[in-house]
Amino acid sequence: MENNKTLTIIIDMQNDFVTGSLANPAAQAIVKPMVQFIKESEARGEVVVFTQDTHQQGYMASREGKFLPIPHCIQGTDGHKVVKELLEASRYGFLVTKPSFGMSMDRWKEVIYEHFYYGLADVKRINLVGTCTDICVISNALILKSLLPEIDVYVYDDLCAGLSPEAHEAALTVMRDCQIIVKKYFE
């Protein structure tokens, strides 16, 4: 795989967020176009990774479980798996688990060093898509922009799904304000 210095991240497109315990029609609607996006990204030589929101048994006793009392993405369950069509669209299917909305800067550094020869200095662009725009996408976009403030971070809004249209738009506004490039992939 040729490295064109772009990291493309598919955020939490897991069964529980698409058709499972936290099913979202907006997430369901972006699966088919995301298949095309993944294939095109890899054809351009981009490194494509899939994040997985990852919880354990006992989720309900966690802080998140107290605020969102719906068990989801429990490791080892079908709901934890990335949507099959998306994984099948990828030749490599790099999976990265994360225990919360966003990953720490240190964990993102590890991921980047796993896939880029020179690590942080080798990354020239980051693309983000996925669900939920207003929780996980925005968290990771802001963390990555803070980690690598001089590179372009793109969020393709037509390949993101928020909890509601209003929450989706509010998150996009915040990301724009933080110098994240928000645009449509399919124009």
Short description:
The protein is an alpha/beta fold and 187 residues long.
CATH superfamily: Isochorismatase-like
CATH class: Alpha Beta
Give the total of domains. 1
Order of neighbouring strands in the sheet with most strands: 3-2-1-4-5-6
CATH architectural label: 3-Layer(aba) Sandwich
Give the strand content: 15-25%
CATH topology: Rossmann fold
Q: What kind of assembly state do the chains in view correspond to? A: single chain
Radius of gyration, rounded? 15 Å
Helix percentage? 25-40%
Rounded mean pLDDT is: 93
Unreliable parts: none
Q: Treating each run of at least 4 consecutive H or I residues as one helix, how many helices?
A: 8
List how many beta strands DSSP finds: 6
Structural class: alpha/beta
The gross shape turns out to be: globular
Between the first and last Cα atoms, what is the distance in angstroms? 27 Å
- List the secondary-structure elements in sequence, H or E: EHHHEHHEHEHEHE
Characteristics:
alpha/beta, Rossmann fold, globular, six-stranded parallel sheet, 187 residues, 20% strand, single chain
Topology:
Layout: E1 6-11, H1 15-18, H2 25-29, H3 31-43, E2 47-53, H4 63-67, H5 84-89, E3 94-98, H6 105-115, E4 125-131, H7 133-147, E5 152-161, H8 165-177, E6 181-183
Parallel strand pairs: 1-2, 1-4, 2-3, 4-5, 5-6
Helix pairs in contact: 7-8
